[in-house]
Specification:
The protein has 1723 residues and is mainly beta. It has twelve helices and 117 strands.
Length: 1723
C-alpha cells in the first residue's frame, strides 16, 4: 500500500450556534454534520453532487472531445433559454449613467439575479452558462430540410437557360445548380453574373409537399472554381500617417515637395524617399523630423465584383458547394478607398466582402472555400495589400461577411487571404457612422457635429434618445467546422451578436509574423455588445496574437478548445464598453510554443518594446472586467466567473528579443475591476506545467470608482471613499502546478502567485497642508469588506523559485485582500531551491508566503487631518482595520530544497509565513527543508500581527514535516490544542489524471486516446479541528473580544457582534462594530472623517487650468467602522482530510492534433469516345455510306479533394469527390446502302508500260560526256475488269478490277555520265582573335556609380591550319580539313573596380536669426517726488540683433553637420528704462524704497557626444538662449544725498529659464573590437574567532586560507591608430573561489597572568568576519601553545609578545571591520 499525504483534500466546516451572540466566544450547540460537497477531480469528468454518501462514476469520452461535458446536478433546478426584449427591461430604469441602463436592458433572464444570490452558486452558474444548439434555429431553414417528397409548383423561365430543381441527399434540401446558369467550373475570368442569375432564380422557385403547403426558395450549388473578378485598382493618391504605438492618423507636418500629406499625387510621391516597408520621414509642426507610413489609396479600375445575398433574395436557403477545395471562390485582394478606421471601428466594409449575406433571417453557407490572392501574387505589386508596416488594422476585405442577419450558419468552409477576417459576423447598422447630429440638440452639443456618429457610439456614450434597444443584434448566427487561416486580423471576428456559436473550427496562422497587434483565431470586436457566446471544440494554432479572444461580451462559455502555439495569449476575455458579468472557461488545452514569439517590434524604429509590453509576454488564460475603467456594472449586480479543468502546458519564458529584452510567461491572469459587481470566481482543477514561468496566478482586484468612465477621474457619489465594495468570493481549488523554474516579476513587485486587492485609491490623494506645512498625501482607504478568499486542495511544485530582480525581491506567494476572510487549507507548496539574490539584510528578506489584510487608515489629526467622532481627538490611533479579517492556515505542507540570499547576507534565518493585518487561525501545518537552513530561536510572544517573535540566536536545522513549529511561525493559534479528532474513514475513487500530448502529425481538431487510463482507490480520513479564540500569545497578540483594550475607556470598543449568516463560504464568521465609549456620541458607530482635496487626473496626467495650475477636486470622506469581520466563532469545526492510495490510478493519455491543413481541388478532364449508329437504306448501293450526324467525343470531370499541409504543401490525403459527365458525347449516325446489281461481266484492257532510265556516273569518262549503255524498251500491261450491270437500264452500276498484270516487262535504259576532273591539295593558315573576359570587383575607395579599369583587357590570337582539295580547272575548294588549331597568344583578363563608396553630398547655406535684446531698468531716487511714488522718466525699448549662421547640411539625411556663427549685427541698441523713485519725506531720517532690476541669466553650453557624427565635427542641436530674472531690492537711502546706505534682495523671480545650448560632438570613429582577458588574484580574508576554551594568547588555525582567482573579460574598441577608445567589462567570474582563513584566539585567563597583563574575557563567543588579508600580519605573532594541537599552533616567542599580539590583533580586527564597513558604504 502506497502512502500518499494529501493528494487531493477536501474540507467542510460546521458553524456552531445559530443564535446571535453578543460575545465572539459564546459557545453553542453542535449541530449535525452538514453533508460534504464532493467535487470530482478527473479532468474528463466534472460532476458536483451533494449527499452524505456520494458515489462517483467515470464517464466515457470519445476521440472527438477533450473531456466529457460538465454536468451540474442541483435540486429542483432547470436551466432553460428565456429571452425578453430590451424595451421590457429598460422601461423602469432611470440612472445617471446611461450605460447602466443599457446593461440592465441587456439582461436576458426574466428573473434577474440580486445580491442575495451570491451564495447560490448553482443558480449563478446556471444563469452564466449559455446553451446554444449547433443546428440552425430559423423556421426557414428547418422547413427547407426535408425528405425528397416535394414537387415544383412554379419556377421562373430564364431565357437561354435550361435547368431543373434537384435534391441533395447529404444536406436534405432542394437546389439549383449554378453551372446551368453559366458558371464555368474552370479557372476562367468571372462567374458572378452566373451566380447572381442562379440566386435570383432560386429565390422565386415555389415547391409544395403532399399536404399542399407551399415553400418558396431553394438553395444554390456552386462547383469547381468560382471566379469573383476584381481587377487591379489604380492608385488615386498616397497618404502619410503617423508611425508607432497608437492609431495611425494624418500628422500635422510637411515634406519638401509635397503640398498635402493626406493627398500626395503620384508625381509628388515619385520625388519622396520611401523605403521598401513604405516608411518615410516628415517634419512635424514643432520642426522635429519623425517617421511616417506612406500608403497608396486605390480607386476602381475595371471589375470589382462580389457574391451578395441581401433582403431581395430572402427566400434563398443556402449557398453551398462540393466541399472545401473542390468548390473554391477565388478573387484578388483589391482594396479601394480609405483603409479601416481603427480609431472609430466604423468603416463600412460590406462592398469589400467576397461573399456578403446582408439583412437575412435564415441562411447557410456551406462546403466551399474562399481563397484571396494578395496583390503581389495577383499582379506583382510591391504593396501586397495584406501587411502594411505600422498599420495592423489596414484591411477591410472579409472573405465571408454576415451583416445584420439572424440564424445564419457558416459551415464546413475554408477561408484564407483576407486582410481583415476570414469570417466576419457583424452589424453595419450599429457600427457605421452615418448619423448627422443636429447642432442645436443636446447630442449635437455634447458630441459635436464635425463627425457623423454611429448608433453604437450614441448608445455607449449615453446619448439622449438612444438606449440599448436602439441596437440591432444578430441572433443565433453560427460558425461551424470552419478552417480559417492566414487572414490578417482574425480567422473569425464578430460584433453585436447574441446566442453566437463557434464550434469545431480550426483557426490558424492569422495575423502576420512581423506584427503582434493582430492575429486572432476568433475574436469579438472591441466596443460591440455581445451576449451568450460559445467557443466549443475548436483548435487555434500559431495565431500571431491570441487564440480565443473576447473584447466585449457577456455570458461567455469557452470550452473543450485547443490553443497551441498562439503567440501572446491562448484565451483572453475582457470588456471595454458593455458589462461583462459571466464567463466560464473550462476543459481547454493551452500550450505555449516559444518558437512563436515576436523578436522585433514593427511599431518602433529601433525594434524594441516598452517595459512590460504585452508583445513580449505570454499568458495562457486572461480574464479581465472593466478594462477601460468605465464602471459598467450597476450597483447590486452579481456575476459568476469560472476557470476550470484547463490544461496549461509548455510555459517557457526563456530567451530575449532581438535587442535583449526578456520574455515572460504566465499561466492565469484575472483582473476584476468593476467596483459595484459582486462575484464568484472559481479557479478549479487546472493543470499547469512548464519549464520557466514568470507567474502562475495573478488575481488583481482594482475596483476603484471612476467618473465618466475615464480611468483617471474619480466618482464619489456612490462611494465616498472612491473604492468599490471589496473582493468577491474567490475559490482556488484542486489545481496542480508543476513548473521547473518560477520567477515572478520582482522589479514590478509581482509574485509568482499574487492575489492583490486595491485597498487605497491613489487618485484621491490629499494635498491639504498639515501642521508641518507639507501636503498630507493621505490616500482614500478601503473601509469595506466583502467576499472571501479560499485557497484549498492545491499542489504547487517548483524545482527552482527565483524571486529577485535587479532592484527588488518578492515573496513567492503574496496575498493582499479586503475579503472578509482568507482560508488556506490542505495545500502543498514545494518551492524547491529558493533564491533571493537581492536580499542583503533582514529588512529586505521575504517570507515564502505573505498574507496581508486591509489595515485601514491611521488617524493623526495634526499630520493627516483625519478626525474621529470621539469625545477627544487622539494624537494617533492605529490602523483601525488591523485586527479584522480572519486568516485560516490549516493543514498545509510547505517544502523547500534549500534557500539562498544575497552575497552580503548569506545566512539569514528563514521566514516561512508572514501575516499582516489579519486574525490568525493556524493549525496542523508542516515545514520541510531538504537541506540545512538557518533558523532563529523563537520567543513565547508575538508582534501585534500575531507573528512569532525571535531571539537573535540562530541555529542550523533540517526540518522534516515539522508540525505546528513556532520556529517557522506555524504555532497553533486560535484552534484547539487538542489533537484533531478522526471523524470518518472512507474508501473513495482516486480519479485518473489526463495528459494531453500535442501531435503535429495529427490533423488539428482531432484527438486520439492512446491510453484510456483507469481510476484508482484511496482511503480518505476526515479530521476535525475546532476554533478556540483563547489560544494565542498573551504577549504581543490580542484578544478578539477586546482588540484595543487601551482605547476602550476614552475612545471605542468592539460591540454589536453578530453571525455573518449571509456569507456561507466562511463557517463561523462573525461581524462587529466599533462603538464610541465616551462623550456625546457614546453608543454610536465609530467614524473617521476628513475632506480630501486632490489634483484631478486625466489620461494619467494632472489636469491644469489655463494658468498651468493643477485643477483640484474635493471629497468629504467618512469612514464608518461597522459590520466588520472580527473573528470566527468558538467551537466552529473545520474539517480536513488525509488520504492514502490503495490502488494507483492510470493516467489517461490523449494526443491532440495540431497539424493545420488546407483543402485543394484537383479536376481531371477525361475524354469519352462517341459511339456510331448505322441506318440501312436502299437509296444507297451496298457498300456505300453517308454520315448523317458527325460524332463528337464527350468529357468527364473527375474531382478529387487533396488535403495538404498548410505550411509545407505536402499532400496528406486524396479522396474522390465526384465523377461527373460534364459534356455528353454526340453519337455518330451513318446511312448504309442496301441496293444490289443484277449481273456482272468481265472486260480486258491492254496498255503500254513505260521503261525507266538509270544514270550511272563514271570517273573514267570525261566530265559531262553521256553514253547510252543499254537502250530502253516499253512493256505491256493487261487489266481484267468485272462490271456490275443494272438489268433494268443496262447501265454499269459498279466496276471492280479482277486482275492487273504486266504481261511484257519493259527494258530499263542505262546511260553513263562522265565525272572525271583535274584536282590538287594545298595547306592554308588562318589567324583569329580571342575575346578577353571582364571581372568586376567592388571597391569602397571609389565613389558609388563610378568604375575604374585596373587591368586593361588584351585579346588573344588563335592560329588554324587547313588542308584544302582544289579543282584545278575552276579553283573551287572541293573539301577542307583542319590539321591544327593552336592558341598562339593567350588573352589578358580585364579587371574593373566598381565603386561602392557612398558619396556624401554637403549643402552649405546661410541661416539668419533675429533676436530681441531686453532693455534694463534703472531706478533713480529723487526728493522731488513723494516717498514711494515712481515715475517712468525714460521708457524702455528692446533692441534687436541679427545673427547669421553658416550651416553645413548632409544632403542625404538633411542633418545639420556643423553650424558656424559668421556675423552678428546690432540692429538697434536697447534703451534703458529709467524710473524715478520718490524719496521726499517730512522725516529727516533714512528713506526706504523698493526697486526692480531685470537681469539676464546666461545659458550654459552642454557638449553631448554622438556616435552618429564624425569624430572632430560639432553640430548645434539646440541653440542656447539666455533667461531673464527680475530682482527686487529694498534700498535704504540717505535722504540728504540719496546715496544707498544698505540694500537687500527681497525677491528674485525667474521670468524665463535659460535654454541650454546643446552641441553634439562627433565621436564616430573607425573602430576594431577585441576581447581582453585579465586574471586577478583575490586574496583570502581572515576570520578571527575568540575562543574562551583556549588560553589567552593562543592562536589556532582552524581553516587554512586560499586565494581565489578572478577572471575579467573586457570588450575593447580601438581606432585606426590602435588607440583604445573604450573598454567595457562584459564578464566577471570567480574561476577559483576564495577560502577565508579562520583563526581561533584564546581568551581563557591563567593563574600566571598578572592583573596588569590580563585581558578581559568576553562574556560570550564573538565572531569577526571579513577581515582583509592586509590586516593579518599581527595575527602571525607567536603565542603560548597551551593544549592545542602543535600542528595548528603558531610559533611562541614570549609572554610580552603574546600580550602585545593579542592587543594588536583585536585593534586590527576592529579597525579592519570599520574600514570594510566604510568601503561598503562607499561602494
Amino acid at each position: 500500500m502506497k502512502k500518499l499525504k494529501k493528494v487531493k483534500k477536501q474540507w467542510v466546516a460546521v458553524s456552531i450556534g445559530a443564535a446571535t451572540s453578543a460575545s465572539v466566544l459564546a459557545a453553542g450547540t453542535v449541530y449535525a454534520e452538514t453533508p460534504a460537497t464532493t467535487v470530482s477531480t478527473d479532468p474528463g469528468l466534472t460532476s458536483v453532487t451533494t449527499s452524505s454518501d456520494t458515489t462517483a462514476s467515470d464517464s466515457s469520452t470519445t476521440a472527438t472531445t477533450l473531456a466529457a461535458e460538465t454536468s451540474v446536478t442541483t435540486a429542483s433546478t432547470t436551466v432553460s433559454e428565456t429571452t425578453t426584449t430590451a424595451a421590457e427591461t429598460t422601461a423602469a430604469i432611470e440612472t445617471s449613467q446611461p450605460i447602466m441602463a443599457a446593461r440592465a436592458a441587456a439582461v436576458t433572464s426574466s428573473d434577474p439575479l440580486t445580491a442575495e444570490d451570491i451564495n447560490d452558486e448553482a443558480t449563478l452558474k446556471a444563469n452564466a452558462t449559455p446553451i446554444i444548439p449547433s443546428e440552425n434555429q430559423s423556421t426557414k431553414i428547418n422547413d427547407a430540410i426535408t425528405t425528397d417528397d416535394r414537387t415544383v409548383l412554379s419556377q421562373p423561365a430564364v431565357p437561354g437557360v435550361s435547368y431543373t430543381v434537384k435534391y441533395d441527399t447529404t444536406n436534405q434540401w432542394y437546389y439549383i445548380d449554378a453551372t446551368d446558369f453559366g458558371l464555368n467550373i474552370a479557372d476562367n475570368s468571372d462567374d458572378t453574373n452566373a451566380v447572381a442569375l442562379a440566386l435570383r432564380t432560386a429565390n422565386d422557385i415555389v415547391m409544395t409537399d403532399g399536404s399542399g403547403t407551399q415553400y418558396k426558395g431553394v438553395a444554390v450549388k456552386l462547383s469547381g472554381i468560382v471566379n469573383v473578378a476584381r481587377d487591379q485598382g489604380v492608385i488615386d493618391h498616397y497618404e502619410v500617417l503617423t508611425y508607432g504605438d497608437g492609431i495611425p492618423v494624418t500628422p500635422a507636418g510637411s515634406i519638401a515637395g509635397v503640398s498635402n500629406l493626406a493627398n500626395i499625387t503620384p508625381a509628388e510621391y515619385a520625388s519622396m524617399t520611401v523605403d521598401a516597408d513604405g516608411m518615410t520621414t516628415y517634419v512635424n509642426k514643432s520642426g522635429v523630423t519623425q517617421a511616417g507610413i506612406v500608403i497608396p489609396i486605390y480607386r476602381q479600375n475595371g471589375l470589382f465584383n462580389q457574391i451578395k445575398i441581401d433582403s431581395s433574395l430572402s427566400n434563398v436557403t443556402a449557398l453551398f458547394g462540393d466541399g472545401q477545395g473542390t468548390t473554391e471562390i477565388k478573387t484578388n485582394l483589391v482594396q479601394l478607398g480609405q483603409p479601416w478606421d481603427s480609431n472609430e471601428n466604423d468603416t463600412d466594409s460590406r462592398d469589400h466582402a467576397v461573399v456578403l449575406v446582408e439583412g437575412i433571417d435564415g441562411f447557410v453557407v456551406k462546403d466551399l472555400s474562399v481563397n484571396i490572392k494578395n496583390l503581389t501574387e495577383a499582379f506583382g505589386d510591391s504593396h501586397d495589400g495584406f501587411y502594411v508596416k505600422g498599420m495592423p488594422y489596414y484591411g477591410k476585405v472579409n472573405a465571408i461577411q454576415i451583416d445584420d442577419s439572424d440564424n445564419v450558419t457558416v459551415e464546413s468552409v475554408e477561408t484564407t487571404g483576407a486582410n481583415k477576417a476570414g469570417v466576419y459576423v457583424g452589424s453595419s447598422y450599429n457600427s457605421v457612422s452615418n448619423i448627422k447630429l443636429d447642432p442645436n440638440s443636446y447630442n449635437g452639443k455634447q458630441f459635436g457635429t464635425a463627425k457623423l456618429r454611429s448608433v453604437n457610439y450614441l448608445v455607449s456614450n449615453g446619448a439622449e434618445g438612444y438606449s440599448f434597444d436602439s441596437l440591432n443584434l444578430g441572433v443565433n448566427n453560427k460558425v461551424i467546422d470552419v478552417n480559417s487561416h492566414n487572414n490578417r486580423v482574425a480567422g473569425v471576428q464578430f460584433a453585436y451578436q447574441t446566442d453566437f456559436l463557434v464550434e469545431g473550427s480550426v483557426l490558424s496562422e492569422n495575423g502576420h509574423k512581423l506584427n503582434g497587434s493582430t492575429g486572432y483565431g476568433v475574436a469579438s470586436s472591441a466596443g460591440s455588445y455581445n451576449s451568450d457566446i460559445i467557443f466549443r471544440n475548436n483548435t487555434s494554432t500559431y495565431n500571431y496574437r491570441k487564440g480565443f479572444d473576447i473584447h466585449d461580451g457577456d455570458k461567455i462559455l469557452i470550452e473543450n478548445n485547443v490553443s497551441y502555439g498562439d503567440r501572446l495569449l491562448g484565451i483572453s476575455v475582457y470588456n471595454r464598453t458593455y458589462p461583462m458579468e459571466n464567463v466560464i472557461i473550462r476543459n481547454n488545452v493551452v500550450t505555449q510554443d516559444p518558437a512563436n514569439r515576436l523578436a522585433v517590434n514593427d511599431l518602433a524604429l529601433d525594434g524594441g518594446f516598452s517595459a512590460g509590453s504585452d508583445y513580449i509576454q505570454y499568458e495562457a488564460i486572461h480574464l479581465q472586467t472593466n478594462e477601460k475603467f468605465r464602471d459598467l456594472s450597476a450597483p447590486g449586480s452579481v456575476g459568476y466567473f469560472e476557470i476550470e479543468n484547463n490544461t496549461i502546458q509548455g510555459l517557457d519564458a526563456s530567451g530575449k528579443t532581438k535587442n535583449g529584452q526578456p520574455y515572460s510567461s504566465n499561466a492565469i491572469l484575472v483582473r476584476m475591476q468593476e467596483p459595484y459587481l459582486d462575484y464568484v470566481l472559481n479557479i478549479d482543477n487546472n493543470t499547469i506545467t512548464g519549464e520557466l514561468a514568470t507567474s502562475i496566478l495573478k488575481i488583481f482586484n482594482r475596483a476603484n470608482d471612476n467618473l465618466n468612465r475615464d480611468n483617471t477621474q474619480t466618482q464619489t457619489d456612490i462611494m465616498d471613499n472612491g473604492l468599490g465594495y471589496g473582493s468577491g468570493a474567490i475559490n482556488i481549488r484542486n489545481n496542480t502546478v508543476e513548473v521547473t523554474t518560477i520567477t515572478g516579476d520582482a522589479d514590478r513587485s509581482i509574485s509568482p502567485i499574487d492575489i492583490n486587492d486595491s485597498i487605497t485609491n491613489n487618485l484621491i490623494k490629499d494635498t491639504t497642508l498639515n501642521s508641518s506645512g507639507n501636503p498630507s498625501n493621505v490616500l482614500a482607504y478601503q473601509d469595506k469588506f466583502r467576499g472571501s478568499l479560499i485557497i484549498e486542495d492545491n499542489t504547487f511544485k517548483f524545482e527552482n523559485t527565483n524571486v529577485s530582480g535587479k532592484s527588488n525581491t518578492v515573496t513567492p506567494v503574496s496575498v493582499m485582500t479586503n475579503a472578509e476572510a482568507i482560508i488556506f487549507n490542505n495545500n502543498t507548496f514545494d518551492f524547491g531551491n529558493v533564491t533571493q539574490t537581492y536580499t542583503n539584510n533582514a529588512a529586505m528578506q521575504k517570507a515564502l508566503i505573505t498574507v496581508s489584510g486591509n489595515n485601514g487608515p491611521t488617524i493623526q489629526p495634526s499630520s493627516n487631518g483625519l478626525e474621529t467622532n470621539t469625545n477627544t481627538q487622539a494624537s494617533t490611533l492605529p490602523s483601525l482595520l488591523n485586527k479584522t479579517q480572519p486568516f485560516v492556515f490549516l493543514n498545509n505542507d510547505i517544502t523547500i530544497s534549500g534557500i539562498s540570499y544575497g552575497s552580503r547576507a548569506p545566512d539569514l534565518p528563514i521566514k516561512v509565513l508572514t501575516s499582516l493585518a489579519t486574525i490568525r487561525y493556524i493549525d496542523n501545518n508542516t515545514f520541510t527543508s531538504l537541506s540545512p537552513v538557518t533558523a532563529a530561536i523563537p520567543k513565547e510572544e508575538s508582534d501585534s500581527n500575531g507573528n512569532t517573535l525571535f531571539t537573535t540566536t540562530v541555529e542550523k536545522v533540517t526540518p522534516t514535516e515539522a508540525l505546528n513549529s513556532r520556529q517557522f511561525n506555524l504555532a497553533v493559534e486560535r484552534f484547539s490544542t487538542e489533537a484533531p479528532a478522526l471523524l470518518s474513514s472512507t474508501t473513495e475513487t482516486l480519479y485518473r489524471d489526463t495528459v494531453f500530448i500535442n501531435d503535429p502529425n495529427l490533423a488539428a481538431g482531432e484527438t486520439v486516446v492512446d491510453v484510456e487510463g483507469q481510476d484508482g482507490t484511496k482511503t480518505v480520513d476526515t479530521y476535525i479541528a475546532s476554533i478556540d479564540n483563547g489560544i494565542y500569545d498573551t504577549i504581543g497578540d490580542f484578544d478578539v473580544n477586546n482588540p484595543y483594550p487601551g482605547l476602550v475607556r476614552a475612545y471605542f470598543k468592539l460591540g454589536n457582534v453578530t453571525d455573518a449568516l449571509d456569507n456561507n463560504r466562511v463557517p463561523g464568521l462573525v461581524r462587529g462594530d466599533y462603538i464610541v465609549t465616551a462623550g456625546a456620541n457614546t453608543g454610536n458607530i465609530l467614524e473617521a472623517y476628513k475632506t480630501y482635496v486632490y489634483n484631478l487626473q486625466k489620461n494619467g496626467k494632472t489636469v491644469l487650468d489655463a494658468a498651468g495650475v493643477p485643477v483640484t477636486g474635493s471629497t468629504d470622506v467618512t469612514y464608518e467602522f461597522a459590520n466588520m469581520p472580527v473573528a470566527l466563532k468558538d467551537d466552529t469545526l473545520y474539517l480536513y482530510t488525509e488520504e492514502t492510495v490503495l490502488t494507483d490510478a492510470v493516467t489517461r493519455v490523449v494526443r491532440v492534433g495540431t497539424n493545420t491543413t488546407t483543402a485543394a481541388g484537383v479536376f481531371d478532364q477525361i475524354e469519352i469516345p462517341f459511339t456510331t449508329t448505322y441506318i440501312d437504306t436502299d437509296e444507297l448501293l451496298v457498300g456505300q455510306t453517308e454520315i448523317v450526324t458527325l460524332g463528337v467525343n464527350g468529357t468527364r470531370t473527375v474531382t478529387y479533394r487533396e488535403i495538404r499541409d498548410n505550411d509545407t504543401g505536402q499532400v496528406l490525403s486524396r479522396e474522390l469527390v465526384s465523377d461527373t459527365v460534364t459534356t455528353e458525347p454526340t453519337t455518330q449516325v451513318i446511312r448504309r446502302g442496301t441496293l444490289a446489281p443484277t449481273s456482272t461481266v468481265e472486260r480486258t484492257v491492254t496498255s503500254e508500260v513505260d521503261y525507266t532510265t538509270i544514270y550511272i556516273t563514271s570517273d573514267e569518262v570525261d566530265k559531262d560526256t553521256r553514253i547510252v549503255q543499254t537502250p530502253g524498251v516499253k512493256g505491256v500491261r493487261t487489266i481484267v475488269y468485272r462490271d456490275t450491270i443494272n438489268n433494268v437500264d443496262g447501265s454499269v452500276i459498279s466496276t471492280e478490277t479482277v486482275s492487273n498484270t504486266v504481261t511484257t516487262d519493259p527494258v530499263t535504259e542505262v546511260i553513263v555520265i562522265g565525272t572525271k576532273e583535274p584536282i590538287s591539295t594545298v595547306e592554308r593558315t588562318v589567324t583569329q582573335e580571342i575575346d578577353f573576359q571582364t571581372i568586376y570587383i567592388s571597391s569602397d575607395q571609389i565613389e558609388n556609380g563610378k568604375q575604374e579599369i585596373q587591368t586593361p583587357g588584351v585579346k588573344g590570337v588563335r592560329t588554324i591550319v587547313y588542308r584544302d582539295t582544289v579543282n584545278k580547272t575552276t579553283n573551287i575548294v572541293l573539301s577542307s580539313e583542319v590539321i591544327s588549331n593552336t592558341v598562339t597568344t593567350e588573352p589578358t583578363t580585364q579587371i574593373i573596380l566598381v565603386g561602392t563608396k557612398e558619396k556624401e553630398i554637403h549643402i552649405e547655406a546661410d541661416r539668419t536669426v533675429v533676436e530681441e535684446i531686453d532693455f534694463e531698468t534703472v531706478y533713480i531716487p529723487t526728493d522731488t517726488l513723494d516717498l514711494g511714488v515712481q515715475v517712468v522718466q525714460t521708457p524702455g525699448m528692446k533692441g534687436r540683433r541679427t545673427l547669421v549662421f553658416h550651416d553645413t547640411i548632409n544632403g542625404l539625411t538633411n542633418e545639420v553637420i556643423s553650424s558656424v556663427l559668421i556675423s552678428e549685427t546690432l540692429d538697434s541698441q536697447p534703451v534703458t528704462q529709467v524710473i524715478l523713485v520718490g524719496t521726499k519725506s517730512t522725516d529727516n531720517g533714512p528713506i526706504v524704497i523698493e526697486r526692480q532690476q531685470v537681469e539676464e541669466i546666461n545659458f550654459e553650453t552642454i557638449y553631448v557626444h554622438s556616435d552618429q557624427i564624425e569624430y572632430g565635427k560639432q553640430v548645434i542641436q539646440t541653440p542656447g538662449q539666455n533667461g531673464k530674472r527680475t530682482v527686487t531690492y529694498r534700498d535704504t537711502l540717505n535722504k540728504a544725498d540719496n546715496t544707498i546706505i544698505s540694500s537687500e534682495i527681497i525677491s528674485n523671480v525667474v521670468n524665463s529659464q535659460p535654454i541650454n545650448q546643446v552641441i553634439l560632438v562627433g565621436t564616430k570613429p573607425i573602430t576594431t573590437t577585441i576581447n581582453r582577458v585579465v586574471t586577478e588574484t583575490v586574496p583570502f580574508g581572515t576570520i578571527v574567532i575568540t575562543d574562551p576554551t583556549l588560553s589567552i594568547g593562543t592562536q589556532v588555525i582552524q581553516t587554512t586560507g586560499q586565494n581565489g582567482v578572478r577572471t575579467l573579460v573586457y570588450e575593447e574598441v580601438y581606432d585606426l591608430d590602435n588607440n583604445r577608445i573604450s573598454s567595457t567589462l562584459i564578464s566577471d567570474n570567480m574561476s577559483v573561489q576564495v577560502i577565508d582563513r579562520i583563526i581561533r584566539i584564546g581568551t581563557l585567563q591563567t593563574t600566571e597572568a598578572t592583573p596588569e597583563a590580563s585581558v578581559s574575557t568576553p562574556a560570550k563567543t564573538e565572531t569577526y568576519r571579513y577581515l582583509p588579508a592586509s590586516y593579518e600580519a599581527a595575527l602571525n605573532a607567536p603565542v603560548s601553545p597551551k593544549a592545542a594541537n602543535p600542528e595548528d599552533m603558531l610559533p611562541q616567542t614570549g609572554e610580552d609578545q603574546n600580550r602585545m599580539a593579542i592587543i594588536g590583533s583585536v585593534m586590527l580586527v576592529a579597525g579592519g571591520i570599520s574600514l570594510l564597513a566604510k568601503k561598503r558604504r562607499e561602494d
